Amino acid sequence: MLYPAYEARLARRLPHDRIPQHVGVMLDGNRRWAKAVGTDTAHGYRAGAANIEPLLEWCEEIGVEVVTLWLLSTDNLNRPADQLKGLLGIIEGAVASLAEQHRWRLHPVGALDLLPASTAERLKDAEEATRDVDGLLVNVAVGYGGRREIADAVRSLLHEQAAQGRTLEELAEVIDVEHIAEHLYTKGQPDPDLVIRTSGEQRLGGFLLWQSAHSEFYFCEAYWPDFRRVDFLRAVRAYAQRERRLGR
Fold first, then answer.
1. Residue 134 lies in domain
2. Quick check: is 37 in a domain?
């Protein structure tokens, strides 16, 4: 009886004018959770996938507009083939389930060319199926790495400028941060206000490197499958209590 009352009080006391517009979440700790409860890795990933929908609902409840979920990094693509295949299958199923509900607008972010063609196709299908949904924008980061994103953005910018007939020397004279930002996977979106990482790890690990320059970070001890609404509300409360200087 205590936790529901505590959650309700937390939610009531959140200042409506200090709710993060964009929340990034590093869904970490699935494998360690599986080990801790004595089950296999696949079960840990399935339990983690099952916790995505509740998170999106919690975000909707308080008025968050954009969520970025880091489901698979570029480094994860180096895992043993049989383990990677199973993980990709779980991710495909989770994304398809979200798309079928037609509640959230899904947008895949990452180096889709590094993924198996079937996985990339599933992600694109989910994006197309939810393109007209007027709801929470959910970036699904699969095959994502912050360094790779920046490299892809610069490459895209160079191709664009070359197509317009500009030389490298001309581009070097005018290029600024906004030019690169316009070619990121999240172009046109607000940068994340709050980045949450579960499992107790306190490092960025390459997540939204460019976009998180002025983000607030919250590190939670709970493994991702155990991450609860009360943990989310605590993260948002911590964000609301901070004085954001935004580099000033």
1. 20-145+194-217+227-241
2. yes
